Amino acid sequence: MARPPRFDHVGITVADLDTAVDFFVGLGLEVEGRTFVEGEFLDTVCGIPDSRTEVAMLRPPDGGTSLELASFVRPDHRPGSPAAMANEVGLRNVCFEIPDLRATVQRLAEAGYGLVGGIGNHEDTWLMAYVRGPEGIVVSLAEQVG
């Protein structure tokens, strides 16, 4: 039997890499590295000739799956749907378990990032909320409470 695949990273394309990095660092992720990528490898993988992108890799402090944020230098990025809701087809959110959901939601609101809906309570065991981050990225925040 073949070894199951290892979940390596989630990639998100953004227009403003600095703002996106700051947002996720504010949630507790750490920047592993940041670099530019271009050439045959990138052209082949993404299928866009003569492309160039700046990439930042972030990871939780305890290790685990990383988050790749990429911003295209060439060609220009194409806007997505920043107001997409959970029923729109496509990758809808990235979820992080955090220790204090209400305080985090308050801090993000003060920085201009609002809730998509509200804070849900699942059987007094989990609190969860969707926050719309930079460029419409939906981040799911979860706190185990019971």
Automatic annotation (TrEMBL):
Gene3D superfamilies, per the entry: 2,3-Dihydroxybiphenyl 1,2-Dioxygenase, domain 1 (3.10.180.10)
Molecular function GO labels: metal ion binding; methylmalonyl-CoA epimerase activity
One GO BP annotation of this record: L-methylmalonyl-CoA metabolic process
Keyword Cell division: no
SUPFAM superfamilies named in the record: Glyoxalase/Bleomycin resistance protein/Dihydroxybiphenyl dioxygenase (SSF54593)
Keywords attached to this entry: Metal-binding
Record has Membrane as a keyword: no
UniProt domain VOC: residue ranges: 6-144
Protein name: VOC family protein
